[in-house]
Amino acid sequence: AVRLRVREALGARQPVDEVKVQGWVRSVRSQKEVLFLHINDGSSLESLQVVADPSLENRDLTFGSAVEVQGKLVKSPHKKQNMELQAETIRVVGPCDTWSFPLKVKERHPLEYVRQFPHLRCRNNTLASLLRIRSEATAAIHSFFQVNGYVHIHTPIITSNDCEGAGELFHIETSNEAKESAEKTHFFNVPAFLTVSGQLHLEVMAGAFTRVFTFGPTFRAENSQSRRHLAEFYMVEAELSFTESLQDVMQVMEDLFKTATSTVLSKCPHDVELFHKYVAPAQKTQHLRLFFFFPSCRISYSEAVEILKQASQTFTFKPEWGCDLQTEHEKYLVKHCGDRPVFVINYPYDLKPFYMRDNEDGPQHTVAAVDLLVPGIGELCGGSLREERLPFLESRLQRLGLADAYQWYLDLRRFGSVPHGGFGMGFERYLQYILGVDNIKDVIPFPRFSHSCLL
After folding, report:
1. Coil, helix or strand for 426?
2. Rounded CA gap, 62 and 148, in Å?
3. What's the pTM value of the predicted model, to 2 decimals?
4. Which residues are bridge partners to 172 per DSSP?
5. Best label site of 20, 32, 68, 193, fewest CB within 10 Å?
6. What pLDDT, on the 0 to 100 scale, is given for residue 110?
7. pLDDT higher than 60, residue 449
8. For the purposes of burial, counting CB atoms within 10 Å of the CB of 91, is it exposed (0-12), middle (13-18) or buried (19 or more)?
9. β-strands 232-241, 2-3: how paired?
10. pLDDT per residue over 259-275, tens digit each?
11. Residue-range domains of the chain with CATH
12. Do the Cβ atoms of 314 and 346 come closer than 8 Å?
């Protein structure tokens, strides 16, 4: 027998005499003359209908049980499905106790409910759709960069660098180190942390390969249980050498978003529709259409602050020049610009990390930085031109007391330095935006510390 995935069986154009399909039972309906099953193996949102003789039914053939069905794949007489499987044998590989199984047949469980069962929630339609979308989006992002000549770099997860300078780092020590005195010797001879960004490592590689990217886990020890923050998340980061324009960086951000989203919408239309129909009906695709068909709004940080100061809305955090934009500010700016994506450029010099390029402007001293703000989320991408001029970078690192620690970074400017820039995009925030999910914890495979078996 030819082994087929459910997706392959549903998409078959011609009948097949001998096939084998394996999966989990989504429904069982026994009638006097016929037994109907629907089975799914995770390859498709839609399940495959199995038609069998009632004699093949047994007590273990229940919702949630794992089965192997052999028979003939034939054209279905029903308009809503292309093919169905006429079973000759049904073998229950793994029974399922439906009474104690937390997921119930034909019941649409809210995301808050299935979050309680991180080890089982992938069998829920919504989370299964999310994980297929996540898989396709990952492949689309890699494809975008490879097609455009970028080299993929695996940047370190354990590092001594604090790229963001925010101090929200997970410190790594061995179990023996934790028991020893404060005068202990570090495993790596220096304090080590889980990475918050691969950017500085990418800058090293951009000095040899021109265009590079990384896509991997990053960690922030931000003590927040909000719907917007994760301790562990995935970050897409890219660096481009020989670019002197912030517009070039913004264009790559926009092209990446459009290409990846087009791929997801074309390859997972039913999965995306499930979210827009049941999880976020207000989202639909209106925000995505605005991104595709209307030019993005571009404003400076100074213009953004003036817009916020003149707003009739009362903010929790008062907008002032020199202060970081809060989520409430970002969402207001998006609405002010017609509920479409907004690029905010040229942030205050003292607000941003040392590696961002000095605009040498005054009296409001700024750097060539950019944030991409999107409806419902706020900041999606952040980037900048990097400071490639040795005297400027050396002076700033000395003022910050970081010159000794970053001698290697200064070497990049001593030996063949070129104008360059880059950006990072939070992958989970991207998924939140295109699907309209309110809680970021619902776009990750496993919610952290929600069940003892996954601690």
Report:
1. strand
2. 49
3. 0.91
4. 192
5. 32
6. 87
7. no
8. middle
9. unpaired
10. 999 999 999 999 999 99
11. 2-101 (2.40.50.140), 121-442 (3.30.930.10)
12. no
